Amino acid sequence: MRQEDIWDVETAQRYDTPGTGMFAADVVGPTVDRLAELSAGGRALEFAIGTGRVAVPLAERGVPVTGIELSRPMVDRLRTKVDEATIPVVVGDMSTAVAPGSYTLVYLVFNTIANLLTQAEQVACFRNAARHLTPGGRFVIELWVPELRTLPPGREATVCHSEPGYIGLDTYDVLNQHVVSHHFRFSDGRQAELFRTPHRYIWPAELDLMAQLAGFELQSRHADWAGSDFTAESPSHVSVYRLPPHGTRRT
């Protein structure tokens, strides 16, 4: 499953769920508030900008936003909301693509660094963020914590979420740190719709080492965008990495 094949026209058309799920005001609001603060009055670059769930409201807050996005259909969907002059987008891989200019903030939300399926690509993503940042600039990652404690010995799958009309299953390859999320949607009939996405999961400590390899230091880690304490029970985290204010960056 290639990412460019997964995020096709059909997926882009149904991706947005205005007012609900990850588009709910209580999800987007704290995200935008925190990113606006971290931009420190400068320009922001979003890796995997998608349809603009975060970028559009962040730009409306007065933060100049540029994006990098692998999926052309997702960019086309973004273009129904804002034009190229408002939010420029470079079509390409976030681990290698270059956006013009420099930024005080690069951000990568909603677990999307895990869409890069090798450790080398994930390290390259950190280095690409560093290349785009001014001294003292920040790279922000929102990422889930691998839920291996819910996986009984000898079993390869676990239910990640269920609600009426939907069930989500994660199948794990613990040798390679791979997980495939299977999203089943169904109604009262006999047919179900399946959407699958592959990921490479990353432990927080491994993420921190990737950051160090790119010249970052960990500035903060919280359980959510509102700044709740990160604990051993937290299912996800928002980690802020910062480049030194001065000196040589390892890129």
UniProtKB/TrEMBL annotation:
CDD domains listed in its UniProt record: AdoMet_MTases (cd02440)
Claim: Cell inner membrane is one of the keywords in the record: no
Domain of life the protein comes from: Bacteria
Keywords from the named record: Methyltransferase, Transferase
GO MF assignments: methyltransferase activity
Pfam families assigned to the protein according to its UniProt record, in alphabetical order: Methyltransf_25 (PF13649)
The Methyltransferase domain, residue ranges: 45-137
Keyword Transferase: yes
Biological-process GO terms, alphabetical: methylation
Protein name (database record): Class I SAM-dependent methyltransferase
Organism from which the protein derives: Pseudonocardia alaniniphila
